[in-house]
Amino acid sequence: MYSPDDAQRYADDHTSPESALLARLNRETHVQVLHARMLSGHAQGRLLSMLSHMVRPRRVLELGTFTGYSALCLAEGLAPGGRLHTVEQNPELENRIRRYVAEAGFEDRIELHLGDARQLLPTLDEVWDLVFIDADKINNDAYYELVLPRVRPGGFLLIDNVLWNGKVLPDYPARPADKDTHAVRAFNAKVQADARVENVFLPLRDGLLLVRKL
Question: Alpha-carbon distance 72 to 48, whole Å?
């Protein structure tokens, strides 16, 4: 009987490798940055890149840049002249993000915004083709409601960490009562019942919810 870790290793071995630049950012983040597990990483990064190449978006929004790994992956599939706006609340990450964006040659494709996404989003006058929400989970619903009206019909949203280490599952031991778990569970249920969208729950890493606006 195989374990989930065995399956993940096999999947990684049969997924196109990350670039040398992304591998360096991956390693640097794990060595030098707190909470490195927040990084999208190899398998999820390649999925983000693949989806971006499929959609060929002109305007992408990311909430939660962290060290920039996912932004670089999403930017790989931008249409000619396309632009990705990414929002990060932690100013201590700015220099690292900008350094890797420059090394990737994406300075004309990626625009970094520092601050609270709830305050910044109303100032971005764009119609989004693709949105990636990977910020604080307690505000998933607020971010969703702020961005969904600005997503074009047929556009996509991706929301990360919707498994929340398995804590959202009904048979999780002790049914944790922390506010983040409650927020993620409630958000997942809301999207499932939302007539404005259709959705697919992907159990990749910590769970990724793929949503299409109708």
Answer: 10
**pLDDT digits over 48-73, tens only?**
999 999 999 999 999 999 999 999 99
Query: Taking a C-beta distance cutoff of 8 angstroms, is the pair 212, 154 a contact?
Result: yes
Distance separating alpha carbons of residues 149 and 213, to the nearest angstrom: 9
Per-residue pLDDT tens for 18-37?
999 999 999 999 999 999 88
Structure tokens at 33: 């940055």
Nearest-angstrom CA–CA distance, 19 and 103:
12
First to last CA, the chain: 41
* Structure tokens, 110: 């990626």
Alpha helices per DSSP H over the chain: 4-13, 20-32, 41-55, 69-75, 94-103, 117-120, 140-147, 179-192
**How much is the pLDDT for 175?**
62
Residue 172's Cα: distance from chain center in Å?
A: 24
- Mean residue pLDDT of the chain comes to 95
- What are residue 190's phi and psi, to 5 degrees? -65, -45
Residue type, 43: A
Residue 2 has pLDDT above 80, yes or no: no
Query: Of 95, 93, 41, whose CA–CA distance to 72 is shortest?
Result: 41
The reported pLDDT for the residue numbered 174 is 66
Phi, psi of 207 (to 5 degrees): 90, 130
Structure-block tokens of residue 63: 């909430």
